Q: What sequence folds into this?
């Protein structure tokens, strides 16, 4: 694809100090959603015009966004963006998203080749295996939450580490103690 400008796929994920990503809504959100962090998250959302999510993250995000009253710039932006959900569940058909289910890598590649801004992906889970295997993630923004969870699925668990070549491009520190490490994928 020489000479073709592709959309960037940016993954944002919460990770604990001990590397846990599972059930982040239980341990990360109490630290994350203050005004400083929401302003930073909104700034990242403004650089994208499409969401890519796994089914579980989509369902959690949908509940969270539905609970917010209109007029919140972060949730208003989040709700206005088209969503693509990777799912292997038979018959899964939300009315507010497009389901990707056949060949996730091919469908995400097709989405990256369309004109537009970046593609935002929240969370880290089973969808990442296909994305990493096919080198589809361009940037990884890890928000390290200052908490030790102890147990749960770890960052990139079950993923071949030979595809994990990244370089640090930015670091953002927040008053809450969160540090966001932004990596560019080296392809």
A:
């Amino acid at each position: 694809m020489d000479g073709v400008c592709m959309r960037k796929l940016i993954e944002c994920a919460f990770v604990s100090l001990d590397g846990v990503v599972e059930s982040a809504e239980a341990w990360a959100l109490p630290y994350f959603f203050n005004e400083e962090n929401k302003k930073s998250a909104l700034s990242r959302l403004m650089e994208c015009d499409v969401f890519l999510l796994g089914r579980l993250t989509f369902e959690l995000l949908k509940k969270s966004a539905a609970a917010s009253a209109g007029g919140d710039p972060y949730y208003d932006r989040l709700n206005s963006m088209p969503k693509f959900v990777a799912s292997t569940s038979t018959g899964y058909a939300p009315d507010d998203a497009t389901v990707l289910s056949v060949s996730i890598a091919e469908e995400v590649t097709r989405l990256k080749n369309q004109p537009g801004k970046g593609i935002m992906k929240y969370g880290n889970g089973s969808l990442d295996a296909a994305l990493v295997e096919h080198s589809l993630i361009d940037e990884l923004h890890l928000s390290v939450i200052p908490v030790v969870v102890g147990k749960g699925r770890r960052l990139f668990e079950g993923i071949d580490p030979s595809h994990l070549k990244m370089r640090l491009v930015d670091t953002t520190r927040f008053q809450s103690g969160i540090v966001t490490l932004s990596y560019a994928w080296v392809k």
